[in-house]
Structures are given as structure tokens and as C-alpha cells.
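Figure 2 data, in text form.
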Amino acid sequence: MILYLTHGNGEESIPLKLPASSSQVDEIDIRLDDICSGEGNFRISDVKSSVKGLWQFIRSADLLDPEDLEKLNRLSRQIDAMSEKEHQIFAGALLSECISNLDDVLQTVGRIGQYGMIPEVTCDRELGWYLVEHGKIDCPEHLKPYLDYVGIGAEFYSNCGGAYTLDGYVVRKEHLSNHSQVPEPWRNENRDEMLRMTLRVDGKPDYILVLPADEEYLDAVKAYLDIDVFADAMLRDIRFKVPYIGELIRDTDCPAVEDYNDFAEALEDIWQQDGMLLTYAAVLEAEKPDTLRGACELLQNLDNYQRITEGAYGYGQHRLQETLGLDDEAIYELDGYMDFEKYGQDCMKNDCVTKTEFGLLRRLDPPFPEQRQGQQMFQ
């Protein structure tokens, strides 16, 4: 989030990227004294943010007050952690609530999970049509052409509140659930979240799907969205719990929800194993799978890889034990009579150990090729 700061009615402004320190604010205040003619309060003239219309709710903040600055920094961090859909919902939530200060803004962002959005519903008429067509209001088919959709939507809006935005109608979920024939699915929260995505179906509120999940939950999601298969939904804003894992996966095949779930279940299996996530990241960088399915196969075959953390000296000892079947006592006796550092370096070269951003990596069977385009072997 970037704030544009000025003095009084000055046309000149200076950007401040949040989070920021008090010293940065003070420096801008001094600079504005030089470039802005006339006197006036130090104020926010504009905001660049992924949340539309945010400026009108934070413009009265006093950045020279350390408490207000800390609140803005906290808000910026929370917005950065949101998905695109949550940005849209937050913009509508602010419009639907009575916001008078930064505390109200922070309370609203803290309750973002209590709001839902019906995409592409931007007025009373569209809301009325949605309520009728999706069974929220029971009406015989032959009477639908005679209905007052504007009145139906206006009555719902009057009773439930919310806000129309350019992205859709935002309202508290409790009001949506009261008018829904299918309850919102419940996921077993005892399972760790590996990734999440937004499912979009025409005429339905966007749904955030958290994986891995069992078949019962996935079937309940399809029923909730009124679809037969997940291929009928658009997948958007896919986010991995471990961002660097998501960045290393390149997929050209547009995987299905089921493929993502298989991957999430495999990732869940190594989640609590020490060092395995870094090993997997190194494998992804070295192997460069071009599909999610390929990435999943590598994840299920991690035993074929060894991430080297002990350096050439330790690796030489390890390989000698592995090759000759020596125990720790025998290695201790050899210490001082053998150049483990040089032996380890030679083993790394012979084993075709590969350098990655996440450490040195060895593939057991078969070893990495000696010459690999785009890869750097250990030297």
C-alpha cells in the first residue's frame, strides 16, 4: 500500500510505501515544507491499494501520531496477506459498515471472514434476479416474468444491508446462509492447510476451497455451488501455504481440483518432517517439472534425493560409511589419517551433486547427468 502525502491544498505529493517508520514520515514532512506553498495540515491526498476506495476511510489518519502510523502499518500487512477476492470483499465491507476511524477499519478487516460476495450483482434488479433464479425465493416458473425484481432486491437489501460494488454485492454471510437451501460446507479443520483457491461459478458467491480435503467435503462443495464436476467452476487466485513451493511449480496443463488435492495430500505427508520441505524445494528447482502431476510424482519419490547440509568434509565421512559400511567409531579412528574434505569434494563430483538455491542436492538413482543446461554442478 502506498500513501501520497501533501500539505494543505498543495498539488505536490510524495509517496510513502507502508509499512514505514516514523523517521520516514518526518523526512517527508520536512521535504513537503520546502515544495508546498502555503500552510496546511500534513495529510493523505491519495492511496494506491488493491482495496478500491480505501482512501476515503483512512484519509483522516494523522501520520505524525505514532499510534496512527502503527495502525496503518498493521492494515497494510493485513491487506498484503489477502487474496484478490478478499480485497474485493473488504472494499464492500467498508462501504456496508459505519466507519469513522482507523479502529473501525481494523475491526472490519479482522472480521473479513464474516462477509461474502455475490459476484456481478451490482444493483437491486440483479440482486432480485439472483434471489429468484437460485431458489432463495420460491416462485413458480410461469410467474417469474411478472415479478418485480427491483422490489425483491431492494427489500433484501433493506433487511440485510451490505453494499453494491463494481465486483458484486457484499453482505454478511449470515444473511446469505439464511436464504440458501444448501448449507455452506464444513471442512475438517484438524488437517493442515496446504493450499487454497477461489472457485467461481456464474450466479453464485465465490467460494474459497481449502485443500487437502476428503471426498465428503468436496462433494458438499459441489452441491453448495450447484455443479456436477469441478470443471464447471473457474479456478482463481491459487495460493500455496509455502509460497516458494508454489513459485517453483510451473504447470501448462491447467490442473483440476482433484489434481491439486492429490498434491496437497502428498505435501501434507511431509509437512511435519524436518527439512523435507527444503529438500522438495531443491528437487523442484533441479528437476523443473512442467506439470502439477509431475511435481506430485517428485513429491511422492523424495526418498530418491538427498539434500546435503554438512559440507564436503561431512559428506566425505557419510559416503565412506555408506560405501564401506563403517560405523562412527571407525570414522573417528580414521580422522587425522584421511583427507575427508578432498574425498567429499571428489564424491560430490562423481555423484553429480547439483547446486540449488536451497542447498546441494544428490539424486540417487539415476544420478543427475554431468552436463545439465541451466544447472550448475558442484565444483
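Caption note: The chain has 16 helices and 13 strands.
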